[in-house]
Amino acid sequence: MVAQPGNAQQLRGGNPAELGDAFRAALAGGELAAYNRRRWEPASEYRLWLTEENLPQLTEGQALTLYRASNSRRTAQFQANPIEEIRDSLDFLLYDTIKLEGRLDESMGEEGAYKLAGAGKEFVSYLLCLREPTLFGVWNGNAERALRLVGLDPGTLRRGLWGLRYIDLLDALHGVLRRFGLADFAEVDQMAYWLTRPERKPG
Predict the structure, then answer these.
(1) What is the DSSP letter of 56?
(2) What Rg, from alpha-carbon coordinates, does the chain have?
């Protein structure tokens, strides 16, 4: 049965198996089709754009597609970044050998050397998850709200260094993945979206 409006709200804090089953029913019933159409269905193609071999040829159109798929909103600012800077920033984020925390500080922080105009935690974390969905989660408003709803908010996401905050978020998202028997962090992102929609229509 596809989850009805309010079902997730009634199940929050209840039986994790029931909530996980309700989410999978909603997924199978097409409730998340529009969300996934641009964000996760083309993931295999997007990953090809981001391979170390193909990244130097990333086009402005492909970069904008990735930006929009991340549900980032400051499009005009992002489009002002030269494509060479976008390629360099993504190469640093995805392939530099320094620790993840350092890469995130430089990519998310306003003073970071690889911070792109208009690109925040939503874009950066989406790219990480896109490349390695079994290792990295998405950090956005849905994720934060979902963690609060299921009682896994670490309480450390609004202060401190960006890299350390992301590690705390990732630990909390691991809890969601395990609790609800999800396949990877792309599925965690979908569940966070499903949990936090203000309205849910019957399938």
Answers:
(1) G
(2) 17
Concatenating the DSSP letter of every residue in 4-49 gives PTTHHHHHTTS-HHHHHHHHHHHHHTTTTHHHHHHHTTTHHHHHHH
Integer Cα distance of 51 and 21 in angstroms: 35
| Residue for token pair 């079902």 | 7
- N-term to C-term CA, the chain: 9
pLDDT of residue 16: 78
* pLDDT higher than threshold 70 for residue 13: no
Comparing C-alpha atoms, which of 97, 87, 93 is closest to residue 108?
93
pTM across the whole model: 0.89
DSSP letters, 144-167, are: HHHHHHTT---S-TTSS-HHHHHH
Please check whether residue 66 is in contact with residue 46, taking contact to mean a CB–CB distance below 8 angstroms. yes
Q: Which residues contact 177 (CB under 8 A, 6 or more apart)?
A: 184, 185, 187, 188
